[in-house]
Amino acid sequence: MKDMSEGYVTADGRKIGGVLMEMKNITLRFGGVVAIKDISFDIREGEIRAIIGPNGAGKSSMLNVISGFYIPSEGEVFYKGSKRPQMRPYQVAQQGIARTFQNIALFEGMTVLDNIMTGRLTNMKSNLFQQALWYGKANEEEMANREKVERVIDFLEIQSIRKTPVGRLPYGLKKRVELARALAAEPSLLLLDEPMAGMNVEEKEDMSRFILDVNDEFGTTIALIEHDMGVVMDLSDRVVVMDYGKKIGDGTPDEVRNNQDVIDAYLGVAHD
Amino acid sequence: MIYREAGEYKTSYDADSRTFPIKFDRMGYYTAMAVAFLVVPFIINDYWASAVAVPFLIYVIAALGLNILTGFAGQVSLGTGGFMAVGAYACYKLMTGFPEVSIFFHVLIAGGVTAIVGVLFGLPSLRIKGFYLAVATLAAQFFLVWLFNKVPWFYNHSASGQINAPERTVFGIAVTGPNTDAWAKYLFCLIFVVVLAWIARNLTRGSVGRKWMAIRDMDIAAEIIGVNPLMAKLTAFAVSSFFVGVAGALFFSVYLGAVEVGEAFGIQKSFLVLFMIIIGGLGSIFGAFAGAAFMVLLPVLLKNILVGGLGWPTDLAAHLEFMIVGGLIVAFLIVEPHGLAQLWRLAKEKLRLWPFPH
User: Fold this and answer.
1) ipTM of the assembly?
2) What residues of chain B lie within 8 A of the CB of A120, using their CB?
3) Residue B10 has pLDDT above 90, yes or no
4) Cα angle, residue B125 at apex, residues B123 and B131 outer, rounded to 5°
5) How close is the nearest chain A Cα to the Cα of B181, in Å?
C-alpha cells in the first residue's frame, strides 16, 4: 500500500486529510471468545471508511470499541492525535463521536423533534437551576440548538413528522430520524451501524444520498458497517475487511475486491 | 368549533415551544388561574378546604414529584410516603428549632433536606432497574418510617410520639396551627403548587427533561449520545424528592397539623401517589393534576352521593366506596392505559375537527 501519511485525493477529487482515529492492535475478548484479534487501521479526516465482513466477523464489536461501549482487552485507540484514555460512552460522545445503531435505538416515547434535540445534549450547558426557573442561558440555548436541529430536519427532509411521536413512524423514517439525531451532534466522526439494513431499493438510494451529502456538505468523517456490497463499493473511499475477528483486507474498494483472502472469506474455502 | 390551531401561525421557535401553543388553551389556563386566585379564596369554607382543596393541592405536588421520577425518568419508586415523612419531620424540626424564620422557608428547606435523602436512596438506581429498584425504594419507605418512630429526637421527645405543628404566620396571617382560616391554607398551598408546576414544566421541556426521558426510553442509547446516566438519575431523584418533601411538609404543617408517622406516611401513601400518576398519565404534568383530582375528589363525591344523596348508612357507604373506586381504577386502566392525560389529548384532537370531521 502506498504511503498516505499526508492524506490523499480520492478518485472524485475530494481531499482526504490526516489520521483522525487510529486503532492500534485492538484485541477484544469476552471470556474465552475472541471477538477481535489484533486489528489495526486508521480513519482519516473527511473520508468514508467502510468496515465489512461476513456475519459474526466482529464489525459491530469494532464499532462498539470506537464508541466506547466496549473497552478493548488489548491495544490502543488514538483520537485526534492523542491516545484516548479509558472512558465511558458519554465521554466519548462529548469528544465528538456520534453513532447510529443496527437495531434502531430511538427514544420511542418522545417526538421526532425531541429525539433529535437529544443529539444536542452535549452542547447544552445551562444548569438545573437555570432550567428550573427558565432564566439566563436556558431559553437562549434552547432556541439556538433548536435552530441547528431544524437545519438537520431540513437537510434530511423530515419536516412533516417533526412533532410525531417516534413510536408511530415506519421503519425507514426511524432510520432517518436516528441519522438526524447523530448528525445534530455535529460530530467529527460519525459511526453508522448498518444504515441500510432492511430497506428497499428506494430507501437505500435515499440513505446513500444522505450519507454522501453529509460527507460532502459538512465534511464529516464517516465510518460505516454495511452488508450491501454495491452500496459499500460505491460510497466508501477505503474499506476494512474482517473475518473471524481478524483483518483480512484494507484498501480502496478496487484493491479489496481483488484481494484473494476477501474473496475466500465471502465465497468460502475450507478453514483449517 | 372554537378549539382550532388553524390560522395560528408561529414565526419563532420560541412561540412554537410554548406550554400552551394554542390560543384557546392559553385562555383556559388564564381563566383557571384567575378563578383559583381571585374567586376560590373568597368562597371557600372549612369543609371544602379540608376535604377537597388542600389535600388535592398537596397531592398534586407529590404526584408531580413522583411523575418526574417515574413518568419522566423511568425510575419506579415506592418510597413516596417515606420521603413525604422526611419533608414533614424536617419541617417540624425547623419550625420548632428556628421559630423566627418564616414557615415559607421551612417548607422549602424541608424539600431540600428530602432531596438529599432522596439522592442517597437513589444511589442503588445506578445498578438496578425496574421492579428491583421498586423493592429498594420500598426499603427506604420502611426504614424512614421506622427511623422517625424510633429516634425520639425527631419528635422532640414528645410523650405521644406525635409531631404537632405550632402556629406560624405569613405576613401576620396564620397558615399553620388550629386557628388557621380555610382560605389561608388554600392560598398558601396554591402558591406552592403553581410555582412547582411551573418549575416541573420548565425542567421537562429543556435539556434536563430530555436527559430523563432518554434514560427512561433506552438507557444504553442515552449514554452513547452523551447523557451521563449517573447525573441524570440522581438529578431526577433530587428534584422528585424535593417536590415530595415539600408535599410532605405541607401535608403535616398545613393540612393535618398533627402527625403520627406510620399512619400518615405509611406504605399506603406511596401507593396512593403512584395510583395518581398512573391514572393521571405517566410523563405528563397535566396527568399529575388529573390523577390527584381523581383520587381525592372521587371518594368525596361518592360519599356525598351515597350518604348524603341516597341516605345509606356510613359504614356501608365507606365499604362500597372502596369497591367502586377500585373497580373504576381497573376499568379505567383497561380503557385507557395511558391515563387521563391521554384521554384529554385524544379529546383535544377530536375537538379540532368537531363538528365537521371531514
Assistant:
1) 0.87
2) 207
3) no
4) 140
5) 31
Q: Which residue of A has its CA nearest to B235?
A: A128
| Contact partners, residue A32, CB within 8 Å, separation at least 6 | none
Q: Which residues of A touch B223 (CB under 8 A)?
A: 88-90
Q: How far apart are CA A207 and CA A231, in angstroms?
A: 10
Q: Which residues pair with A74 in a beta bridge?
A: A27
Residues of B in contact with A68 (CB under 8 A): 224
Is pLDDT of A54 > 50? yes
What average pLDDT does range A67-77 have in this prediction? 91
Domains assigned to chain A: 1-96+187-272 (3.40.50.300), 107-185 (no CATH)
Assigned domain for B176 exists: yes
**Is B156 within the bounds of a domain?**
yes
pLDDT tens, residue by residue, A221-241: 999 999 888 888 889 999 999
The answer as to whether B320 is a domain residue is no
CB B73 within 8 A of CB B229: no
> Which domain does B117 fall in, by range?
43-266
Residue whose entry in the numeric block shows the C-alpha cell 475466500: A264
A33: Cβ contacts below 8 Å, ≥ 6 apart? none
Taking residues B198-211, report their average pLDDT.
92
Residues of chain A that touch chain B, judged by Cβ-Cβ distance less than 8 Å: 67-69, 88-90, 92-94, 98-99, 101, 105-110, 114, 117-122, 124, 126, 128, 131-134, 138-139, 141-143, 146-147, 150, 181-182, 185
Contacts of residue B293, defined as CB under 8 A and 6 or more positions apart, other chains included, come to B56
Q: Is the CB of B217 less than 8 angstroms away from the CB of A109?
A: yes
Q: Does the pLDDT of residue A167 top 80, yes or no?
A: yes
Mutate to test the interface with B, among A90, A130, A146, A188 (most CBs of B within 10 A): A90
Each residue's pLDDT tens digit, B224-261: 988 999 999 999 999 999 999 999 999 999 999 888 88
Structural domains in chain B (count): 1
Q: What CA–CA distances, in Å, run from B32 to B39, B40, B47, B182?
A: 10, 10, 21, 20
pTM of the model: 0.90
For B269, phi then psi, to 5°, come to: -70, -40
Q: How many CB pairs below 8 A link A and B? A: 108
Q: What pLDDT does A65 receive?
A: 93
Express each pLDDT in B248-297 by its tens digit.
999 999 999 888 888 889 999 999 999 999 989 898 999 999 999 999 98
Looking only at the bridges linking them, the beta strands covering A33-44 and B169-170 are: unpaired
The answer to whether position B116 is within a domain reads yes
Closest CA to A153 of A164, A167, A138, A141: A164
Alpha helices in chain B (DSSP H): 13-16, 23-34, 40-43, 46-48, 54-66, 80-97, 103-122, 130-150, 182-205, 207-217, 219-224, 229-250, 261-264, 267-280, 285-303, 314-335, 339-353
Point out the residue among A67, A118, A146 whose CB comes nearest to the CB of B214: A118
